[in-house]
Design a protein that fits this description.
This protein is α+β, with helices and mostly antiparallel strands and 423 residues long. 15% of the residues lie in helices and 16% in strands. It is built from nine helices and 16 strands. α4 crosses α5. The longest helix is centred in the middle third of the chain and has 10 residues. It starts with 39 loop residues before the first helix and ends in a 7-residue tail after the last strand.
Length: 423
Amino acid sequence: MNDTPRRRPPAPTRAGTLSLKPRAAAPANVAPADAAPATPSEKARDWRKPATGAGRNRGKASFPEQANTEPVRRTTDAGGDRSPRQEGDRPARPFGDRPPRQDGERPARPYGDRPPRAGGDRPRDERPRGDRPPRQEGERPARPQGDRPARPDGERPPRHERKAWSGEPRPAPAPSPLRDDGSIRLSKRMTELGLCSRREADEYIEKGWVRVDGRVVSELGSRVKPGQQVELDRRGQTVQDRRVTILLNKPVGYVSGQAEDGYQPASVLITADNRWAEDPSETRYLRTHQNGLAPAGRLDIDSVGLLVFTQDGRIARALIGDDSTIEKEYHVRVEGTLDAAGLKLLNHGLSLDGVALRPAKVSWLNEDQLRFVLREGKKRQIRRMCELVGLKVVGLKRVRIGRVMLGHLPPGQWRYLGPNEAF
């Protein structure tokens, strides 16, 4: 048996089970169409819901007269939909009824709670600026800038006159009284005496390892006279003697200095495994020998032969200094024809980059090799010299620097500069 109660069916009516309510009559407060237009306050009241009565809780849809009525739109003079203002609306603001302002008349303009100025209105040009008195004609007081006093007139010319150039050379600076006695910097004097390089001299001076006439000098920039005795004490000499110089037979494909274009520097070959087994030097290889090791000279990537690496600034200055006179010998394999006039030009008479070359020693080794002995080392100098006389270099090898020969050192291997060897 089902316990769900059954719903009672609706009772039949004359109009059926559903019926529509008749449309309610128009509210009493709706004005007829031919009545005068209502004010904005009256319109607002018309759209409000009735506070009391049967229609209190009804919505807009319950007012058919208002729901089906087209809203009133205003028209403007510019062609819009806005209608001109009606009575009771905000009147238009006039723009031409403002009276003209009289001369000197300017009412005080209040800004919030700011009180009006005392004294009433005043002309613009009489407005005071603090305690500064009014400026007289032709009078301009000096403008103070901090604590700097005002510059008197005529002491310094205007900027455009200061920059004007008269064409006369600038006078030479007055010599310093410290240099009138012929004194020079201590570090430069140590370099001239061959004790060390300028960089090493500054290091030894700071450490107090330098003596001038038996007195320790530890101040950088100290000056000495040529007649004074300069010496390096035992500690400095020990450090200087520990600096090593390495001779490498550079093969093709390595650059002399920093790595470039994917090529490795020749310094990567200086390892314990690449040391020449027949090295006559008894110096023990240490990792500290790599510190400060720099090439003293260069060889092109396609050139081979003797390349010097050193920690000693004296050797580097002697090999690549501007006043270096140490000879460097090359064996050069060439292609082409060279007559006597061309050979004479190779010895002396050529210029590179507008600068005349120093005299060289050039001679034939065999039918296809030339021997070059130079006292300078410009970039790709030998190759460019040969191009000027119609030759093409196909091989270049450096075999000697000063009195140090390449000898039987194999390519890619190195050895120490012996204590009895000197460039």
